[in-house]
Amino acid sequence: MNKKALTLLEILVSITLLSITMTGMLNIFTSSTRQQRHSRSRLTAAELARSFVDPLHMDVRQDQWGTNCLSGFAGSCPSAPLTIGGISYTPIVTCGGAPGTSIVRKVTAKVTWNEP
Fold first, then answer.
1. Which of 11, 76, 93, 108 is the most buried if burial means most Cβ atoms within 10 Å?
2. Is residue 18 included in any domain, yes or no?
3. How would you label 75-88 residue by residue, b for 16+ Cβ within 10 Å and e otherwise?
4. Number of separate domains in the chain
């Protein structure tokens, strides 16, 4: 018997294997796209936090400690949400002092956002 064509069963098995392979490739593609979007959002949030903390470096000098603009500030300073690339970022700058004093010892910037 000389066989020159594919049977229906062989075609169905090859289509099934191809669809399983393509589904796996599609899952990898969507996962990497979502991870890339998340990484971009984290980078934007880090740069936004840096933009709030960097100007404070100019005010922190030992010879002005206790008289600069940070000396009387303690607590958190929420800022207005910023929308960048369709994502709304909400920064909060927190300044903490030593117990019983008004001198700031620690400044943290926290940025929250919701990814689409």
1. 93
2. yes
3. eeeeeeeeeeeebe
4. 1
Structural domain for 58, as ranges: 8-113
Domain assignment of residue 23, yes or no: yes
State the Rg of the chain over Cα.
28
Please choose, from the candidates 74, 87, 75, 84, the residue with its C-alpha nearest in 3D space to the C-alpha of residue 114. Answer: 87
**For residue 7, which phi and psi values (nearest 5 degrees)?**
-85, 165
The answer to the question of residue 93 being in a domain is yes
Question: What are the pLDDT digits (tens) for 47-67?
Answer: 888 877 776 666 666 555 555
Q: Is the model more confident about 80 or about 59?
A: 80
Residue 3: inside a domain, yes or no? no
